[in-house]
Protein backbone atom coordinates (compact mmCIF):
# COMPACT_ATOMS: atom_id res chain seq x y z
CA UNK A 1 0.00 0.00 0.00
CA UNK A 2 2.83 2.39 0.78
CA UNK A 3 4.31 1.83 -2.69
CA UNK A 4 0.94 2.53 -4.28
CA UNK A 5 0.64 5.81 -2.36
CA UNK A 6 4.16 6.92 -3.28
CA UNK A 7 3.47 6.02 -6.91
CA UNK A 8 0.12 7.90 -6.89
CA UNK A 9 -1.91 4.77 -7.56
CA UNK A 10 0.43 3.10 -10.03
CA UNK A 11 1.47 -0.42 -9.12
CA UNK A 12 5.03 -1.05 -10.40
CA UNK A 13 4.98 -3.89 -12.92
CA UNK A 14 7.55 -6.63 -12.49
CA UNK A 15 7.39 -7.61 -16.15
CA UNK A 16 8.73 -4.15 -17.04
CA UNK A 17 11.30 -4.17 -14.18
CA UNK A 18 9.83 -0.90 -12.89
CA UNK A 19 11.85 0.80 -10.16
CA UNK A 20 11.10 4.50 -10.11
CA UNK A 21 13.74 7.07 -9.18
CA UNK A 22 12.38 9.41 -6.50
CA UNK A 23 15.39 10.83 -4.61
CA UNK A 24 15.56 14.55 -5.45
CA UNK A 25 19.30 14.81 -4.82
CA UNK A 26 20.12 12.03 -7.28
CA UNK A 27 17.64 13.37 -9.83
CA UNK A 28 19.41 16.73 -9.69
CA UNK A 29 22.82 15.09 -9.89
CA UNK A 30 21.88 13.05 -12.95
CA UNK A 31 20.42 16.05 -14.76
CA UNK A 32 23.52 18.07 -13.90
CA UNK A 33 25.72 15.32 -15.36
CA UNK A 34 23.68 15.27 -18.58
CA UNK A 35 23.70 19.07 -18.70
CA UNK A 36 20.90 19.50 -21.27
CA UNK A 37 20.81 22.83 -23.06
CA UNK A 38 18.04 24.71 -24.88
CA UNK A 39 17.50 23.35 -28.40
CA UNK A 40 19.28 20.04 -27.61
CA UNK A 41 17.59 17.06 -29.22
CA UNK A 42 16.95 14.90 -26.14
CA UNK A 43 15.33 11.47 -26.14
CA UNK A 44 14.39 9.67 -22.93
CA UNK A 45 13.89 5.92 -23.05
CA UNK A 46 11.52 4.71 -20.35
CA UNK A 47 10.48 7.98 -18.64
CA UNK A 48 8.25 6.08 -16.19
CA UNK A 49 6.76 8.47 -13.64
CA UNK A 50 8.64 11.40 -15.16
CA UNK A 51 11.22 12.01 -12.43
CA UNK A 52 13.87 13.00 -14.98
CA UNK A 53 11.41 14.06 -17.68
CA UNK A 54 10.32 17.27 -15.95
CA UNK A 55 13.83 18.63 -15.25
CA UNK A 56 15.01 17.62 -18.73
CA UNK A 57 12.12 19.47 -20.38
CA UNK A 58 12.74 22.48 -18.18
CA UNK A 59 16.37 22.61 -19.28
CA UNK A 60 16.05 21.63 -22.96
CA UNK A 61 12.62 23.10 -23.71
CA UNK A 62 11.30 19.95 -25.37
CA UNK A 63 11.81 16.22 -25.06
CA UNK A 64 11.03 13.08 -27.05
CA UNK A 65 10.38 9.89 -25.11
CA UNK A 66 9.54 6.22 -25.60
CA UNK A 67 7.40 4.49 -22.97
CA UNK A 68 6.11 0.90 -23.13
CA UNK A 69 3.62 1.12 -20.24
CA UNK A 70 0.27 2.46 -21.51
CA UNK A 71 -0.84 3.66 -18.07
CA UNK A 72 2.35 5.63 -17.55
CA UNK A 73 2.18 7.02 -21.08
CA UNK A 74 -1.31 8.33 -20.34
CA UNK A 75 -0.10 9.96 -17.11
CA UNK A 76 2.78 11.62 -18.95
CA UNK A 77 0.43 13.01 -21.61
CA UNK A 78 -1.75 14.48 -18.86
CA UNK A 79 1.25 16.05 -17.13
CA UNK A 80 3.14 17.46 -20.12
CA UNK A 81 1.68 19.24 -23.17
CA UNK A 82 2.37 17.72 -26.58
CA UNK A 83 4.53 20.67 -27.64
CA UNK A 84 6.90 19.93 -24.75
CA UNK A 85 6.84 16.12 -24.76
CA UNK A 86 6.76 14.11 -27.97
CA UNK A 87 5.76 10.71 -26.61
CA UNK A 88 6.00 7.43 -28.50
CA UNK A 89 4.13 4.57 -26.86
CA UNK A 90 5.91 1.32 -27.66
CA UNK A 91 8.68 -1.18 -27.03
CA UNK A 92 12.16 0.34 -27.37
CA UNK A 93 13.50 -3.05 -28.48
CA UNK A 94 11.23 -3.02 -31.54
CA UNK A 95 12.22 0.43 -32.81
CA UNK A 96 14.45 0.90 -35.85
CA UNK A 97 16.72 3.34 -34.07
CA UNK A 98 18.66 4.50 -37.12
CA UNK A 99 15.44 5.50 -38.86
CA UNK A 100 13.93 6.95 -35.69
CA UNK A 101 16.89 9.10 -34.68
CA UNK A 102 17.65 10.28 -38.21
CA UNK A 103 14.38 12.23 -38.16
CA UNK A 104 15.52 14.50 -35.30
CA UNK A 105 17.32 16.96 -37.58
CA UNK A 106 20.51 16.83 -35.55
CA UNK A 107 22.54 14.67 -33.20
CA UNK A 108 20.39 13.25 -30.40
CA UNK A 109 21.22 13.07 -26.71
CA UNK A 110 19.79 9.77 -25.44
CA UNK A 111 18.90 9.34 -21.76
CA UNK A 112 17.38 6.46 -19.87
CA UNK A 113 16.89 4.57 -16.64
CA UNK A 114 16.97 1.25 -18.46
CA UNK A 115 15.13 -1.80 -17.08
CA UNK A 116 17.75 -4.34 -16.08
CA UNK A 117 16.26 -7.23 -18.04
CA UNK A 118 16.47 -5.39 -21.38
CA UNK A 119 19.58 -3.26 -20.86
CA UNK A 120 22.06 -5.34 -22.87
CA UNK A 121 19.70 -6.03 -25.83
CA UNK A 122 18.83 -2.33 -25.96
CA UNK A 123 22.49 -1.26 -25.91
CA UNK A 124 23.09 -3.56 -28.87
CA UNK A 125 19.96 -2.29 -30.64
CA UNK A 126 21.24 1.28 -30.38
CA UNK A 127 24.69 0.43 -31.76
CA UNK A 128 23.83 0.79 -35.47
CA UNK A 129 22.37 4.25 -34.76
CA UNK A 130 25.47 5.63 -33.01
CA UNK A 131 26.16 7.94 -35.95
CA UNK A 132 22.98 9.89 -35.12
CA UNK A 133 23.85 10.24 -31.42
CA UNK A 134 25.68 13.04 -29.62
CA UNK A 135 25.93 11.12 -26.36
CA UNK A 136 24.08 8.59 -24.22
CA UNK A 137 23.56 8.71 -20.47
CA UNK A 138 22.10 5.57 -18.95
CA UNK A 139 21.37 4.32 -15.47
CA UNK A 140 22.07 0.61 -15.37
CA UNK A 141 22.82 -2.14 -12.91
CA UNK A 142 26.29 -1.51 -11.48
CA UNK A 143 27.59 -4.88 -12.68
CA UNK A 144 26.53 -4.11 -16.25
CA UNK A 145 28.38 -0.79 -16.20
CA UNK A 146 31.42 -2.56 -14.74
CA UNK A 147 31.42 -4.77 -17.84
CA UNK A 148 30.87 -1.87 -20.22
CA UNK A 149 33.88 0.12 -19.00
CA UNK A 150 36.15 -2.84 -18.15
CA UNK A 151 39.69 -2.88 -19.53
CA UNK A 152 41.36 -5.95 -21.07
CA UNK A 153 42.68 -8.42 -18.52
CA UNK A 154 39.94 -8.08 -15.92
CA UNK A 155 37.24 -10.61 -15.12
CA UNK A 156 34.48 -8.14 -16.06
CA UNK A 157 35.95 -7.64 -19.55
CA UNK A 158 33.97 -9.56 -22.15
CA UNK A 159 31.78 -9.46 -25.23
CA UNK A 160 29.76 -6.45 -24.05
CA UNK A 161 32.95 -4.49 -23.33
CA UNK A 162 34.42 -5.11 -26.77
CA UNK A 163 31.24 -4.57 -28.78
CA UNK A 164 30.61 -1.18 -27.17
CA UNK A 165 34.17 0.07 -26.81
CA UNK A 166 34.82 -0.24 -30.54
CA UNK A 167 32.08 2.37 -31.11
CA UNK A 168 31.95 4.52 -27.97
CA UNK A 169 34.17 6.18 -25.41
CA UNK A 170 32.64 5.30 -22.07
CA UNK A 171 32.81 6.86 -18.64
CA UNK A 172 31.32 5.61 -15.38
CA UNK A 173 30.12 8.73 -13.55
CA UNK A 174 28.71 7.69 -10.15
CA UNK A 175 26.64 5.08 -8.34
CA UNK A 176 22.99 5.37 -7.30
CA UNK A 177 21.94 3.37 -4.20
CA UNK A 178 18.80 1.19 -4.01
CA UNK A 179 17.16 3.62 -1.60
CA UNK A 180 16.91 6.25 -4.36
CA UNK A 181 14.19 4.13 -6.01
CA UNK A 182 10.67 3.05 -5.20
CA UNK A 183 10.42 0.12 -4.87
CA UNK A 184 14.08 -0.31 -3.96
CA UNK A 185 15.86 -2.81 -6.24
CA UNK A 186 18.16 -5.46 -4.82
CA UNK A 187 21.16 -3.96 -6.64
CA UNK A 188 23.14 -0.74 -6.86
CA UNK A 189 22.86 1.25 -10.09
CA UNK A 190 25.49 3.29 -11.92
CA UNK A 191 25.38 6.18 -14.37
CA UNK A 192 27.41 5.70 -17.54
CA UNK A 193 28.20 8.25 -20.26
CA UNK A 194 28.70 6.89 -23.79
CA UNK A 195 30.16 9.20 -26.44
CA UNK A 196 30.22 7.84 -30.01
CA UNK A 197 33.66 7.85 -31.62
CA UNK A 198 33.75 10.24 -34.58
CA UNK A 199 33.27 8.56 -37.93
CA UNK A 200 36.70 9.60 -39.19
CA UNK A 201 38.33 7.91 -36.21
CA UNK A 202 36.50 4.61 -36.63
CA UNK A 203 38.34 1.65 -38.15
CA UNK A 204 36.85 0.18 -41.31
CA UNK A 205 35.51 -3.32 -40.71
CA UNK A 206 32.52 -5.55 -41.33
CA UNK A 207 30.20 -5.42 -38.34
CA UNK A 208 28.87 -8.94 -38.83
CA UNK A 209 32.35 -10.43 -39.05
CA UNK A 210 33.40 -8.45 -35.98
CA UNK A 211 30.39 -9.71 -34.03
CA UNK A 212 31.11 -13.32 -35.08
CA UNK A 213 34.72 -13.13 -33.94
CA UNK A 214 33.91 -11.49 -30.61
CA UNK A 215 31.08 -13.92 -29.83
CA UNK A 216 33.21 -16.96 -30.70
CA UNK A 217 36.21 -15.69 -28.75
CA UNK A 218 34.23 -15.19 -25.54
CA UNK A 219 31.98 -18.23 -25.89
CA UNK A 220 34.50 -20.27 -23.89
CA UNK A 221 36.73 -17.86 -22.03
CA UNK A 222 39.19 -20.47 -20.81
CA UNK A 223 40.11 -21.51 -24.34
CA UNK A 224 42.93 -19.93 -26.29
CA UNK A 225 42.04 -18.03 -29.45
CA UNK A 226 43.51 -20.91 -31.46
CA UNK A 227 40.72 -23.15 -30.14
CA UNK A 228 37.94 -20.64 -29.55
CA UNK A 229 38.14 -19.24 -33.10
CA UNK A 230 38.76 -22.49 -34.97
CA UNK A 231 35.32 -22.31 -36.63
CA UNK A 232 35.97 -18.75 -37.79
CA UNK A 233 39.73 -18.33 -38.37
CA UNK A 234 42.76 -20.52 -38.90
CA UNK A 235 45.80 -20.21 -36.69
CA UNK A 236 47.68 -18.55 -39.53
CA UNK A 237 44.91 -16.00 -40.04
CA UNK A 238 45.12 -15.14 -36.34
CA UNK A 239 48.88 -14.65 -36.66
CA UNK A 240 48.35 -12.56 -39.80
CA UNK A 241 46.19 -10.25 -37.69
CA UNK A 242 49.20 -9.72 -35.40
CA UNK A 243 47.51 -11.61 -32.58
CA UNK A 244 49.00 -14.48 -30.58
CA UNK A 245 46.90 -17.66 -31.16
CA UNK A 246 47.83 -18.78 -27.66
CA UNK A 247 46.26 -15.69 -26.06
CA UNK A 248 42.81 -15.63 -24.48
CA UNK A 249 40.02 -13.30 -25.50
CA UNK A 250 40.03 -11.22 -22.33
CA UNK A 251 43.59 -10.02 -23.02
CA UNK A 252 42.75 -8.34 -26.36
CA UNK A 253 41.54 -4.80 -26.85
CA UNK A 254 38.83 -3.90 -29.36
CA UNK A 255 41.35 -2.98 -32.06
CA UNK A 256 42.83 -6.49 -31.96
CA UNK A 257 39.35 -7.87 -32.57
CA UNK A 258 38.99 -5.48 -35.49
CA UNK A 259 42.18 -6.89 -37.03
CA UNK A 260 40.91 -10.43 -36.51
CA UNK A 261 37.57 -9.60 -38.12
CA UNK A 262 39.36 -8.34 -41.22
CA UNK A 263 40.74 -11.87 -41.73
CA UNK A 264 37.31 -13.50 -41.74
CA UNK A 265 36.33 -14.73 -45.20
CA UNK A 266 32.87 -13.66 -46.42
CA UNK A 267 30.15 -16.21 -45.72
CA UNK A 268 28.89 -18.08 -48.76
Sequence of strands across the biggest β-sheet: 4-3-2-5-6-9-7
Please report which band the strand proportion falls in: under 5%, 5-15%, 15-25%, 25-35%, 35-45% or over 45%. Answer: 15-25%
CATH architecture of the largest domain: 3-Layer(aba) Sandwich
CATH topology category name of the largest domain:
Rossmann fold
- Return the domain count: 2
List keywords for this structure.
Rossmann fold; 268 residues; 12 helices; alpha/beta; 2 domains; disordered N terminus; Helicase, Ruva Protein, domain 3; 7-stranded mixed β-sheet; two-stranded antiparallel sheet
Describe, in short, the structure shown.
The protein has two domains: 2-201, Vaccinia Virus protein VP39 (Rossmann fold, 3-Layer(aba) Sandwich), CATH 3.40.50; 207-261, Orthogonal Bundle (Helicase, Ruva Protein, domain 3).
Characterise this structure.
Helices cover 35% and strands 19% of the residues. The chain has two domains: 2-201, Rossmann fold (3-Layer(aba) Sandwich), CATH 3.40.50.150; 207-261, rRNA adenine dimethylase, C-terminal domain (Helicase, Ruva Protein, domain 3, Orthogonal Bundle). With 268 residues, the protein is an alpha/beta fold. β2, α3 and β3 form a beta-alpha-beta unit.
How does the SSE layout of this entry go?
Layout: H1 2-6, E1 20-21, H2 24-34, E2 41-45, H3 53-60, E3 63-67, H4 70-79, E4 85-89, H5 97-102, E5 108-113, H6 119-126, E6 133-141, H7 142-149, H8 159-165, E7 168-176, E8 181-182, E9 189-196, H9 207-219, H10 225-228, H11 235-240, H12 254-261
Parallel strand pairs: 2-3, 2-5, 3-4, 5-6
Antiparallel strand pairs: 1-8, 6-9, 7-9
Helix pairs in contact: 9-12
